[in-house]
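Working notes for the structural subgroup meeting. M.R. asked for a predicted model of this chain before we commit to crystallization trials. I am recording the input and output together here so anyone reviewing the notebook later can reproduce the run.

Input as submitted:
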Amino acid sequence: MIEHTDPNRGKEAAPKTEAPKRRFGVLLPFVIFAAVAGLFFLALKAGDPSNLPSALIGKPAPPFDLPPLMEAGTATVAPRNVTSASLGNGTPAIIHFFASWCGPCREEHPNVMALAEKLRAQDPAIPFYGINYKDDASAARRFLGGYGDPYTHIGVDRSGRTAIDFGVYGVPETYVISGDGTVAFRQAGPLTQDVIEEKILPLLQNKGGPAATGQKPGGDEASPGSSPAATIRPSVCKNSFRLVALSPANSRESAADAAGCALLRARMPLALSLMA
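Returned structure, recorded in token form:
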């Protein structure tokens, strides 16, 4: 009688790990989606994104010298650059950073136009600077041609250097410059009618004094728990409008800069860690 032997007899059975691996692979996308959804929910509940520390309140506005936004060859005389030379001459001013590619800029533009009308009615001498941030010039002109041009001067910040000097972390942003040339108010994010009526216009009537809006020298909105600002501009901060890395002049973060960056990182930790 011939005995048939099993060739696998005596060998230990290999552990079966394929099924658990497959189950983990199926569940992984759902786990990632739930984590991302939770982070975005927390970001939405984190408060007003405009309440970010600003190191420039009460300090001189950064100087700028920018080429104008206009069609080449449309003037017989070479156009003058848009500069900060007239700031601090006793008349307050508005500086507004915008871009044609910026969705919130399009949404806020009716309010920007309304602000321009109110400025002309209140004091036609108040300059309204538009600074076109990292944009295509022809696209910016089409944007203003289609939606309306509210500005008295428009400078082109192609490199983003002027935005860095002001501490802009994403467009749109608006600054009120007082009559003595110092920054009196900063609005991070789209303008609203409430901001215009309750903060910007009273400042302009007061020649740009910061006390009228609740903003204090060296800080942004006077809100509970806000950190006092120091003298260095924000560093490595990114926002949901446009992820923009900012570099301070001396490569150091002040307490206010750290607080602003920490606030943004707390709201969007996954997105910022991926983009860092």
